[in-house]
Amino acid sequence: MKDLISNINKVFESRVRLGIMSVLMVNETYDFNSLKETLDLTDGNLASHLKALEEKGMIKVNKQFIGRKPNTSYSATETGFTEFRQHLKALETLIKEQ
Amino acid sequence: MKSDTKSIEDIKAIRKIMEESSRFLSLSGLSGIFAGVTAIAGALVAYFFILDNGSIHFDEYFKDLSPQVTFSIRWQLIADAAFVLVLSVLFSLYFSIKKSKRDGKNFWTPISKRLLINLLIPLVTGGVFVFVLLLQNNVQLIVPCFLIFYGLALVNAGKFTFGEVFYLGILEIITGLVSAFFQGWGIIFWIFGFGILHIIYGLAMYRKYEA
Rounded to 5 degrees, what angle do the CA atoms B178, B179, B185 make? Predict the structure, then answer.
């Protein structure tokens, strides 16, 4: 049981972060605006959670220009993938145990 | 117990987001039905008007005619097929945009772009190849090629939308390969592959996801 709890990752506790990670698990990259629309969030809210995930090394940011418009896209890092998978597994076992 | 329901909800939300962000789900069954009907109409126009009630068909005699003689027939067939294609595409866009609006979703997403690119690569390749066949007067392989390349395009695009599209693609490929064995039956296979299969697919999808 102790093991299980330790696998529940504090970084992913918020619904928004779960959403961001879910999108990036099944898509190689996703840009800011599309994330915003998919998850139905405000700019500020999304940006702050992205920042937090980036600081923990779960996602990486790719900035580039499409024409003259800046375009920021995100993808999950190796750590992000492993940690999120562990987190999911922990959630699932938690449900099964009870 | 409280954390238990939260976990269940979390997992549900995760599944939903994964599905919605990686698959384009605004494809409407109505597009399939409409594409099928247009394809059949196009085939009938070809049979009754361009091929003169079926009295012109591909045989030894047709093969021996000089390319100049069959030129206008070939161009009329191209125009007919292109008209069917454009009409089907426009209506499937229309129905999909309508469906995405109704569901409150965006039509133009990274996924719909990926879907389109994956659909278009085999489709455009097939289109160009068919064009070459037509120019060289290799009329007998045109319908098989249309069906096979279209099937490959659907198989390719199936990863980004409903899984059923993948199976429709497989059926189109099989129809195309079988039709390659039966020369002179092109219109029948066209009606089956582009007409009947599309209508069955469209009806099934409409009943499953939209009705």
Answer: 140
